[in-house]
């Protein structure tokens, strides 16, 4: 029987307001093989966010202790707060046969790209800077200064685009979701994920002939 190395990390990065959390939730609804990586953060919870569901909300002291213990596959400061991905959680999900999807910034994506962990990196962009600005305004959660900060941050993040294998334009949400899902499915069938497929296939034929 032909087998493959089936599981990998799916890294989604996007400017703030790029729509990645909505895409991520839709992917999880449509494809249960994909599990979400719950990050640790020192940022306080916002609105409806629940500890242990959206993030593990921890103090800076706890975060730095975990960082020193080597608990994080990657970690970075974003907008003045710490964020990190738990190694043990990722390992347990990969072992359980899941792909792990994560919403992390460009620094974290870079750090994971430097490791041996199998991952695909997807950048999500709105169709234009104007659309991004309009979406940030429509969200109604950020002050005009905050919006300007996020827009200039987005410009800086674009410098890291060459580090990603895929770019998905989030114009119509369901199309962007389809694109990400198609990328995941295509990645599952990449030749390099199979273990010696031709030999295994022919081996079965030879085994039958011996019987
Ligand atoms: P927010 O506070 O709005 O949820 O996220 C702010 C930024 O932090 C986003 O760009 C998000 O992708 C990033 N982020 C969330 N979790 C992690 C993480 O575990 N590691 C890194 N490097 N970035 C993260």
Describe the protein in words.
With 211 residues, the chain is of the alpha/beta class. The chain has a domain of 137 residues: P-loop containing nucleotide triphosphate hydrolases (Rossmann fold). Helices cover 44% and strands 19% of the residues. The protein contains 8 helices and 9 strands. The strands form 2 sheets. It has a 5-stranded parallel sheet with strand order 2-7-1-8-9, sandwiched between helices. A hairpin with a 2-residue loop joins strand 5 and strand 6. Helix 1 crosses helix 7. The longest helix is centred in the last third of the chain and has 16 residues. The protein is globular, with a radius of gyration of 20 Å.
List strands and helices in order, with pairings.
Blueprint lengths: L8 E5 L6 H11 L3 E3 L3 E2 L14 E2 L2 H10 L2 E7 L2 E6 H9 L3 E5 L2 H8 L5 E7 L3 H11 L4 H14 L8 E4 L3 H16 L8 H14 L1
Parallel strand pairs: 1-7, 1-8, 2-7, 3-4, 8-9
Antiparallel strand pairs: 3-6, 5-6
The chain binds guanosine-5'-monophosphate (5GP).
The site of guanosine-5'-monophosphate has 14 residues, from strand 5, strand 6 and helix 4.
Compact description:
With 211 residues, the protein is an alpha/beta fold. It contains 8 helices and 9 strands. The protein has a domain at 9-37 and 99-206: P-loop containing nucleotide triphosphate hydrolases (Rossmann fold, 3-Layer(aba) Sandwich).
What is CATH's topology name of the domain at 9-37 and 99-206? Rossmann fold
Report the structural category: alpha/beta
Strand proportion, as a percent range, falls in: 15-25%
- The helix/strand order is EHEEEHEEHEHEHHEHH
Residue windows where pLDDT falls under 50 for at least 5 positions? none
């Amino acid at each position: 029987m032909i087998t493959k190395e089936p599981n990998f990390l799916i890294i989604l990065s996007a400017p703030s307001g790029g729509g990645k959390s909505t895409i991520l939730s839709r992917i999880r609804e449509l494809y249960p093989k994909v599990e979400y990586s719950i990050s640790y953060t020192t940022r306080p919870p916002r609105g409806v966010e629940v500890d242990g569901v959206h993030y593990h909300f921890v103090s800076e002291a706890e975060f730095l202790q975990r960082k020193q213990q080597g608990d994080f596959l990657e970690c970075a400061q974003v907008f003045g707060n710490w964020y990190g991905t738990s190694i043990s959680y990722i390992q347990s999900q990969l072992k359980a046969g899941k792909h792990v999807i994560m919403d992390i910034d460009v620094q974290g994506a870079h750090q994971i790209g430097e490791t041996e962990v199998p991952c695909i990196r997807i950048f999500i962009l709105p169709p234009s800077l104007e659309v991004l600005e309009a979406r940030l305004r429509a969200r109604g959660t950020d002050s005009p200064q905050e919006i300007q900060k996020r827009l200039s941050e987005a410009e800086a993040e674009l410098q890291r685009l060459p580090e990603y294998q895929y770019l998905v334009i989030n114009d119509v949400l369901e199309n962007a979701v389809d694109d990400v899902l198609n990328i995941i499915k295509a990645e599952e069938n990449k030749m390099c994920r199979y273990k010696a497929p031709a030999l295994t296939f022919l081996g079965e034929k030879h085994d039958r002939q011996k019987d």
